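Worked example 3 (structure in, sequence out).
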């Protein structure tokens, strides 16, 4: 299996991409895994203010990242823009370490966070263009990068809670500051510059005029909405409705997270054989099997077994989905990658509201039924796409 052709040729620049995406992933995971606890304990924010913070952060993240992506695709100095995003991460972490004023965090912290969170999409876009310039398998390399980013979110949250509980939030954000600072230096000294002349053509593309982009954006947003609704409701469903051990929820998430990473790598391999469109159809189909299983399977062993479908659903969506956006918008790699990233953010916003409303009126089964419906709609959107149509790069 040709998983890492770049690394086998001792390409040190490729190692830089992998190192930076992993460390920035951990830095972000350290901060946001315990954010609600930080706001409640150190800032003394009530539930309303905490919800407001998350909502503003999500909306600002979508707007700022899309603006930065548009600017990046019209600017050949992508490396300098990534450096600026890393510096924003340094400033954000420092602000959270030393400041305890809620409104300063809401205004300046959210702004810096929105800029810093754009680091990853821009790195993915830069990596795609770099591997294409080197005549390498860009899709497989992007899949490996995405796997490392997911791994960062597997190991980051437990570390975050340990540091926050044992040493406090000041030390936690200080660690994040150091990690962002290290990434800034690595990007400055080691990351290759972008020399792709097609960045100057990005202004000619109106992404929303592309019917396939609209369909893929809708499908991806609905799929992420379903996934987030499940993550919000599942722990409560396991404990209060099924009356199973509350630790089971953690085990289920842990199994799914661990299987997602090999699922990403396998999807990257088979994408070469059957194409991104077919892989996305497989992802949606796995989602239908998973949410359908949640409606009918209620024992511990059954819930653990169907995590395989959950891992396939999320793993393929997380890796192939990004590459599909990049292919559809080949002249605007930063916009394409950020559009994909924003489907995750939009899904988080929608799921927070939708899961609460549905749970109140229809219970947890209603949440899973809604998720199943959203996945079916996603499958319909994907099936209507022209699988052979994309911008040539």
């Amino acid at each position: 299996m040709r998983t890492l052709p770049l690394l086998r040729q001792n390409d040190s620049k490729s190692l830089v991409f992998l190192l930076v995406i992993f460390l920035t992933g951990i830095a972000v995971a350290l901060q946001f895994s315990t954010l609600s606890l930080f706001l409640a304990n150190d800032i003394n924010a009530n539930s309303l203010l905490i919800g407001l913070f998350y909502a503003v952060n999500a909306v600002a993240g979508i707007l700022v990242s899309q603006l930065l992506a548009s600017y990046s695709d019209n600017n050949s100095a992508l490396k300098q823009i990534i450096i600026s995003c890393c510096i924003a991460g340094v400033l954000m972490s420092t602000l959270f370490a030393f400041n305890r004023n809620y409104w300063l965090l809401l205004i300046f912290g959210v702004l810096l966070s929105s800029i810093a969170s754009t680091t990853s999409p821009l790195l993915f876009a830069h990596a795609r263009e770099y591997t294409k310039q080197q005549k390498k398998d860009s899709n497989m390399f992007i899949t490996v990068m995405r796997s490392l980013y997911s791994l960062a979110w597997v190991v980051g949250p437990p570390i975050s809670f340990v540091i926050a509980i044992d040493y406090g939030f000041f030390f936690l954000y200080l660690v994040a500051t150091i990690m962002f600072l290290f990434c800034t230096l690595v990007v400055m000294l080691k990351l290759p510059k972008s020399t792709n002349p097609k960045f100057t053509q990005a202004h000619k593309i109106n992404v929303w005029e592309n019917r396939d982009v609209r369909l893929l954006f809708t499908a991806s947003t609905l799929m992420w909405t379903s996934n987030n609704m499940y993550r919000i409701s599942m722990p409560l469903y396991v404990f209060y409705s099924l009356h199973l051990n509350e630790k089971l929820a953690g085990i289920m998430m842990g199994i799914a997270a661990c299987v997602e990473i090999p699922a990403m790598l396998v999807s990257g391999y088979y994408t070469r054989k059957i194409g991104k469109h077919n892989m996305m159809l497989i992802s949606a189909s796995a989602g239908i099997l998973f949410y359908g299983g949640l409606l009918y399977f209620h024992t511990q062993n059954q819930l653990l077994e169907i995590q395989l479908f959950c891992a396939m659903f999320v793993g393929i969506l997380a890796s192939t989905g990004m590459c599909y956006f990049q292919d559809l918008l080949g002249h605007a790699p930063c916009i394409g990658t950020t559009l994909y990233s924003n489907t995750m953010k939009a899904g988080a916003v929608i799921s927070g509201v939708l899961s609460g409303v549905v749970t109140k009126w229809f219970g947890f089964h209603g949440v899973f039924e809604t998720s199943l419906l959203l996945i079916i709609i996603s499958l319909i959107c994907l099936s209507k796409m022209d699988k052979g149509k994309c911008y040539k790069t």
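Notes: Confidence is low (pLDDT under 50) at residues 1-6, 199-203. The CA atoms of residues 118 and 166 lie 30 Å apart.
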